[in-house]
Amino acid sequence: MKQYCYYPGCSSEATAKGLGLSIEAIAGPLEIELVEPKGWVCCGAVHYGSLDSTEAIVVAAYSLALAEATGLDMVTPCTGCYVTFTRAAKKLKEDAVLMQQVNRGLAAAGLEYKGSVRVRMLTEVLINDIAPQSIASKMKRSLNGLKVAPYYGCQLVRPNFGFDDPEAPQKLDNLINSLGAEAVPFPMKNRCCGSSLVIPEEKIALDFVYKVLKSAADNNAQCIVTPCPLCQVNLDAYQGKANSKFKTKYKLPVLFVSQLIGLALGLDKKALGLHTNIVSPKSVLKHIATKKQGVAGGA
Q1: What is the pLDDT of residues 241-251, one digit of tens each?
Q2: pLDDT for 250-265, tens place per residue?
Q3: pTM attached to this predicted model
Q4: pLDDT at 30 over 70
């Protein structure tokens, strides 16, 4: 049983409940123990830093300190949280004066950050620690023939923290293929979904959403799979508006990586939070239901 300090982040308990539910569901079968630190707070997201960079680092350091106290690697499923924590940890490591300043603030909460915690993305852990081959060996349900568009988005590969090639990433493709599905060619796999621009400038953001959807549909994808909660909500919740603007009829389910893995593991669709998806995943479930081939670990 591999043990990690699990920082769920705000999205997995709000706009991306399917992410949180599916991670909890797959942890047991994959022999992962997720230890959630008590009292964690919002990472501060990427926006806080544009208002007050020091306060933003203090906010991030609060949860970093909680994670550090567990003595475990800090794992988060959110690409935004991952980038925020990684940047904060790097700045604190490089700036002793800033570290002292931040720790004076943390002292008010009885905390101290020493800079020893390792921040990791859950997707990276699944690929590098658990390994696609190991996940595939536990499959109970065939995904054979399911055409999947692997959507990395911006932050999983940028800034370049060494997870994958930022311009031509392949690790998510490999994970999808290991589950018996087919990762289709997808030129927009690492392009922006519009991010939080969808709030102040929805019309502009819909252009980004449309381009990603079109790229997936043009390559015959039956669904899009992503690790990012913001990418998922943009492509899922705003798919209808993109259809209205561009006179299209896309009905592409947008699943989290953890949901796809959960389906391969034979887990219940409600346990995986598939009922929280806005674009119905029924077409994906129907495809899987028609596959009767045996798979490693079950049938």
Answers
A1: 999 999 999 99
A2: 999 999 999 999 999 9
A3: 0.93
A4: yes
